[in-house]
Amino acid sequence: MTAEPFIALLLIWQLRRINKRSFVRPEWDKPLRNAMFTVLGIMVFQAVLPDLLTTWLWHVAMVLFIIAIFKMEELQAIRNLAIAFLPLMAVALLKDIVGLLPESIEHKFDGYLNFAFPASVIWMIVMLIIFNKQRKALEKEHRKTEDEEQQKKIAEARKAELEVLVAERTSEILQQKNELERTIEELRNTQSQLIQSEKMASLGALTAGIAHEIQNPLNFVNNFSEVNTELIEELKAEHLKPGSERSVQHEQQLLNDISENEQKIIHHGKRADAIVKGMLLHSRISTGQKEPTDINAVVDEYLRLSYHGLRAKDKTFNAKYEANLDETIGQIKIVPQDIGRVLLNLFNNAFYAVTEKKKENVSGYEPTVTVTTKQIETNIAADIGQREGGVLVTVADNGNGIPDDVLKKIFQPFFTTKPPGEGTGLGLSLSYDIVRAHGGEIRVETAPGEGSKFTIALPRDQS
């Protein structure tokens, strides 16, 4: 029996193994398995068949198999294995060919063939070792490639999942963004409404103060007008008397009284006119333009309007107020309506504070609000940042003061300590913004149980 059957069996087995591992040609698996069984069958029946015939059949079959291995790209994986067996098969083929020659010639090649056989075996062993190492390296590379492909598939699957999650999260964020934008718009609308409510509350307080303030000069005008009517009637009656009964001196006295009353009517009429003009000045829409203004006049006007407005609202209200105004200040550039709103808010808060303390029935307590204006010729404190001097307006009260936890929040929008319905919580916030817009600063000093003092620092020229 020659070596070809074992070599064929080994090559077919290796080819089938490689094919299963790499799936080069999956349809070959069944034919290769049948080929293995055929080789095994031929090896079994080789003992029955003529040895010479089967030997040459194996030689022909192996030559065709080797040619097929080197011709077909699909069988490239076992070329190195075929190369390992080529010398051994060549030696077997040469030995059988030489065996057909005369015995004398055959003996001449026996030495070469005897040397070539172990050499071909050694070649086979070396090539098998090399092939085995290459096979292991290829398997390792193949496993690495499979792992990389698996990792790539996992990464792609994860990427697809992340893309879906990102898309979902982006959709949620966009939805939240839209909801926040709607909420912000609603808050802006609400804030605008509350600011308008604060302005209307301020205007309401002013209107009440103006009504109370204007009532006094109107009463004087009405009273002196009635008195003048009576004096004129009396003068007419005196003038109609006979000449002997008429008193020129009495007529002159009546005329003097009428003239004096007329002057009083004109005086109080002008006073009412000034109050009405002040009301119109406050109620008109602010242009936001700064103009030279007598700050002392603004302080005095809004202090009286605040006081009389509270008196008109609450008949039991009573408090003392003092105004210490620096007459050397002159005019400064401000927006009168805006600064007036700031002052009105501070005055109302001060009167509210002293009224609340008065309700505690403290012995010897007299509710007092003091307003002071002062000119600063040199630069005001550097941290306020005034230029070329300015004006300080101070509003002090002797109420209960402001607790520390409240003091930190008084300039926050919508924060108030007043009961519901009595304040929007925007007064001090708006005042702070107005003063800052004028390039000034507003500060507060307080002592629990003793009172509070708000100081407004305004530059003389904010241009």
What is the helix content? 55-70%
How many helical stretches?
Answer: 10
Q: Could you give the count of β-strands?
A: 7
- Mean pLDDT across residues: 76
Globally, the shape reads: rod-shaped
User: What class do helices, strands and sheet pairing give?
Assistant: alpha+beta
**CATH superfamily label of the largest domain:** Histidine kinase-like ATPase, C-terminal domain
Proportion of strand residues: 5-15%
Named at the architecture level, the CATH assignment of the largest domain is 2-Layer Sandwich
Main sheet makeup: 5 strands, mixed
Distance between the termini: 119 Å
Short key terms for the protein model shown above:
463 residues, alpha+beta, Heat Shock Protein 90, two-stranded antiparallel sheet, 67% helix
Task: Describe this structure as you would to a colleague.
The chain is an alpha+beta fold. Mean pLDDT is 76; it is low at 380-387. A hairpin with a 3-residue loop joins strand 6 and strand 7 (451-459). The longest helix has 137 residues, at 103-239. The protein folds into 2 domains: 4-157, no CATH class; 289-463, Histidine kinase-like ATPase, C-terminal domain (Heat Shock Protein 90, 2-Layer Sandwich). The chain is built from 10 helices and 7 strands. The N and C termini lie far apart (119 Å). The chain has helices spanning 4-22, 29-45, 51-71, 79-99, 103-239, 248-283, 295-313, 336-358, 404-407, 427-437, and strands spanning 291-294, 320-324, 331-334, 368-376, 390-397, 441-447, 451-459. The chain is 67% helix and 10% strand. The strands form 2 sheets. A 5-stranded mixed beta sheet has the order 2-4-5-7-6. Helix 5 (103-239) runs antiparallel to helix 6 and helix 5 crosses helix 7 (295-313).
